[in-house]
Amino acid sequence: MNAPGHGGRREVVVFSSLLEDSAEDLYENAPCGYLSTLLDGQIAKVNATLLGWLGYTREELVGRRAFSDLLTVGGRLYHETHFAPLLRLQGEVGGVALELRTADGSRLPVLVTSKVKSGADGRPQLIRTTIFDASDRRAYERELLRARQEAELDRERLQRLVRTLQHSLLPSSLPQVPGLRAAAHYHIASRDEVGGDFYDLFPLTSARWGFFLGDVCGKGAGAATVTSLIRYTLRAAAVYDSDPVTVLDTLNAALHQEYHGDDPRYCTAIFGILAPDGDGFSITLASGGHPPCLLLRADGTADYQPTPNGLLIGILPSATFTSRAIHLGPGDTLLLYTDGLTEARTGATGTPDGRFGDEALHAFATRLAPTTASAAVAALAGLLEGFGTGLDDDTAILALSVPSPGE
User: Fold this and answer.
1) Which tens digits make up the pLDDT trace of 158-175?
2) Which superfamily does 17-133 belong to?
3) Which of 266, 107, 293 is nearest to 196 (CA)?
4) What is the pLDDT of residue 189?
5) What H or E segment, with its residue span, contains residue 165?
6) Is the pTM of this model over 0.70?
7) Between the chain's N and C termini, which has fewer beta carbons within 10 Å?
């Protein structure tokens, strides 16, 4: 009856001995470094793992060196001015990135956690420190930083390409029309994508001028290709027959023929012809699915100038377009814009989805009237900047005005 009991006690003793050996082995050969120092920083105990990382023997460190002696110059300064004072104040500091200087002079990036051990009387006795090798983490951070820098460089190249391509789709400057003032603005919503808005003003004869403004569906290289086709088609069609309805008919046929397959492309556009007429200009307009332009008059009023029944351009093999005549007199300004302006999200009440909307634009234009082409464009450019992140689509603006007698 006694034999099993004695055998059980022997097993407990052996197991206890193994636990003690295992605990010591775990301390010495742990996957992290362990270090115990006196309150003045002198090293009192160090495990084999940390000795192996640093290349020192136990005799070279224990009782001979302080923990701060193992730090690089920058690390020692941080330890003395931040780490040690915070440790005295809080009793524990964790996850601090430092660098240790090894026996051969190389640097070892580490993460350090220290905790003050107190005696039964509550007085601090020593400091226990756990050290993790952060070499892999530092390498990962460097690789991450390199990848980020390369990505930023690639984005800069992309943005330069986008700017160059965008500028190639817009006139570098507007021509001087005798007796007329013209101004334009293009607001880019994203520097990473080419927009599909376009505008132009160009001579047809010595007394007739063509102008247009529009918006292609989509963004990117595909939209840029369509925009280029539209600009040159409108210019060429106006030279052949300057009637605005005929010009839009020609553009509709060209777009539908080129993009009627699985990837249809279409646009909205206003095309106009202007010619001197007395003290101002006569303008004939035709529109295909585009927001109506605004006429800001010299008497301080402003009204939309719709061209009804104008269909989207390029959707159908044949489309119906109508035209209207406008007289632009002294002090009057004609304002054309793309829908990025009215669809900007401002959070305003009374408009669908809190967008700026047609009514707000009409009120804004009324407050501007009477004005000039350059003043109207400057005011709208400031308005667009104020929309901030609420403006997620490119916006083109073209304004034409006749100087008042006082100018």
Assistant:
1) 556 556 555 666 788 899
2) PAS domain (3.30.450.20)
3) 266
4) 75
5) helix 135-168
6) no
7) N
For residues 213 and 398, the answer to whether their CB atoms sit within 8 Å is yes
Q: Are 401 and 332 in contact (CB under 8 A)?
A: yes
d(CA 57, CA 148): 41
Max Cα-Cα span within the chain? 130
Strands of 47-173 (E only): list them. Answer: 92-101, 107-118, 124-133
**pLDDT tens digits, 292-348:** 999 999 999 999 999 887 889 998 888 889 999 999 999 999 999 999 899 888 765
In this structure, what token pair is assigned to residue 114? Answer: 């220290």
Q: Angle at which helices 373-387 and 357-368 pack, to 10 degrees?
A: 140
| Model confidence at 91: pLDDT above 80 | yes
Total count of residues recorded for the chain:
407
Q: Distance between CA atoms of 266 and 276, rounded to whole angstroms? A: 33
pLDDT tens digits along 262-277: 777 889 999 999 999 9
- In CATH terms, are 17-133 and 170-401 the same topology? no
User: Dihedrals φ, ψ of 135, to 5°?
Assistant: -60, -45
Half-sphere exposure (Cβ direction) of 299: Cα atoms closer than 13 Å: 4
Residue that is written with structure tokens 């965008």 in the block: 166
Q: Where are the domains of the chain?
A: 17-133, 170-401
Give SS3 for 105.
coil
pLDDT score for 1: 45
Burial 2-24 (b: 16+ CB within 10 A, else e): eeeeeeeeeeeeeeeeeeeeeee
Residue 138 confidence (pLDDT): 63
Q: How far apart are CA 160 and CA 154, in angstroms?
A: 10
* Cβ contact 193:208 at 8 Å: no
Q: Which two tokens stand for residue 369?
A: 């009237």
1: amino acid identity, one letter? M
pLDDT at 244 over 90: yes
Bridge-based pairing of strands 323-328 and 107-118 is unpaired
Alpha helices in 241-293 (DSSP H): 244-258
Superfamily of structural domain 170-401: PPM-type phosphatase domain (3.60.40.10)
